[in-house]
Amino acid sequence: MPPSSAYRPEPRFLDLGEAWGDAVRAADFPATILRVRNDRAAASVGLDTLTDAEWTAHFGRFEPLPGQPGPVAMRYHGHQFRTYNPDLGDGRGFLAAQMRDDRGRLLDLGTKGSGQTPWSRGADGRLTLKGGVREVLAAAMLEALGVPTSRALSLIETGEALERGDEPSPTRSAVLVRLSHSHVRFGTFQRAAYLGRADMVEALVEHARSLYHPDVAAGDTPGFLRAVVEASARLTARWISAGFVHGVLNTDNLNVTGESFDYGPWRFLPHYEPGFTAAYFDQTGLYAFARQPEAVFWALTQLGGALKLVAAAEPLTDALNGFGPAYIRELRAAFLARLGVSSLGEAADQRLLDATLALLREGGEALRWEPLFFDWFGGFASSARALQGPRGKLYQGEAFDVFRFALFEHAPDRPERLEAPTFAAAEPEEMLIDEVESIWAAIDADDDWTPLYAKLARLETARQVWSLNPA
Which of 155, 299, 317, 459 has its CA 20 to 30 A from that of 141? Predict the structure, then answer.
């Protein structure tokens, strides 16, 4: 059957013209085995009525959806670990479609592992099945924890044996389709500036402003940068509250809508550790957990530098200087949301943020990151549950007393959420590396997908219960 009447195709990226992307073809895979189908995400863009055969045709063989052109590999540049690279672009993915969701917002279908493009730089353009499974898990966990993120729409195994230098090979292959509001990256602007094309920068600003930040007036480039700064500050604060470590915060992995995507060798913190890194190749800790705000701000300054072709430096600098205050404001809000309590004003909210971080720091490996938020979700309404739970003996001492006082100042927010069976469990849903490896091991050794599907089901329940997802 065709997509439902809710499907509204609108391929707007092509409005920019041929200078921004290259028409490409997907690889001809030897197999297309549907492994993950996200019908909740698909329903938001009217694609949930596709049969499995149609789904595989569109997201495994990439037959264009109605009203969509063929795939386009997007062109961009970027700083990678702060070294500028002008030889970038979609090397193993492409923009497959654009459409409006059920709220009227433009969304992209972007691929990963769909084959070689002009930007593959000699690589095979493929994605390992393990890499696809990891992205499915990360996206589900991030969404459950209220972090703006792309969603994994589809994962299809493609029947190839891939050789990789950093994991056991040969390994199985897959193609992923993600649903995201935009794939316009900071590096997209950097490329136009590198070419010295003020006209291209101007066109891209107007394109991104009108589609993703329509409250900004036409022609207001500093206002556009300010909107991207605000979105990026919120994203970064939510990463920190979730204990998420992105891994590769290059300027080609940050976009104008402030959503997580292309997070590479991500990790979630097992416990408070500011220097925790996700990528084995991040030997200097440039993108360590606590350095993520610094990394995002640095990337924003590169975006601001690209915009200097079309706007004066002073208002752009003013827009960039808004990151720090916005980040702290968003961090307070994010921690309150994670703890399930209402705001009491800036001073009291800051006391709670500081006290929470101090308790996490003192609790160390024994306390762990995620269980603290689980135990004390709802503030004083959870006191008995937390103190009688498996970590009850950890909740004592001066740091805990300061935390409890600051927490109990704040009234519970929607305390009815605590009635869910989720909170009767001793432990929260976490996403630590041992569990991720265990889920993959079942697939790799026995083709057993049960642990993955069970984990995704539990994360969906958690998402609904916590109700943290940002608008």
Answer: 299
